Amino acid sequence: MLKTPGGGAGHGAAATDGRPMSIGTVLTVLREEFPDVTISKIRFLESEGLVEPRRTPSGYRKFGPQDVERLRHVLRMQRDHYLPLKVIREHLDAMERGEAAALPALCRQRDGDGILEPVEEPTAARIGRAQLLAAAGIEERELSEWESYGLITPLPDGAYDAEAVTVATLVAELGRFGIEPRHLRVMKAAADREAGLVEQVVAPLKRHRNPQTRAHAEARAKELAGLTVRLHAALMQTALGVRLP
In this protein, which residues make up the domain named HTH merR-type (predicted)? Predict the structure, then answer.
């Protein structure tokens, strides 16, 4: 079993009894340490070759304890070190081959002056259009419609941020309740305004000459984003409590 720093097979009873787990059970186990993880995220990591659960004859995923440990390691490396998925995959593959694989370093020390310099800027996970369609389980026409409403936006090179999988999955789920993409434009507009507020707060850090301070800006932005999401959820619950007592 893959041994991971800062944790291991001790998290969650479901991960230690050796029985195959459904993706829903894996989600429950992982959320003990990673509250923001989603089923879409797990599916995306699978599509990127970072975990390979076995499939039942009917096509359902079944994860073993080693799959869960591998997912934990991937999520920790993304959360704590901002490593690209390609680097994470190479690191884990080396570990499973029994090679001595040190954690890839993103910084080096400049000789003589003790200043840390980035070796390589962390790159956000990106996926292609076909990968997005497959991971979210949607059709081309649906994606095109959602793009027309600005709910999903491709990057300049035509690829997508990995979070687009989560957005697409949620839009599809809301559609089951009769909520159409055009209804979601107000949510997109609100998200853009909230992102602008976060950007205003972290902008001074991002312009700082010290690279460590600039790196801290990303962590601060993620923390602020998490707080705004929690506030939004609480305000929604309050509003619904007033309107639907």
Answer: 36-94
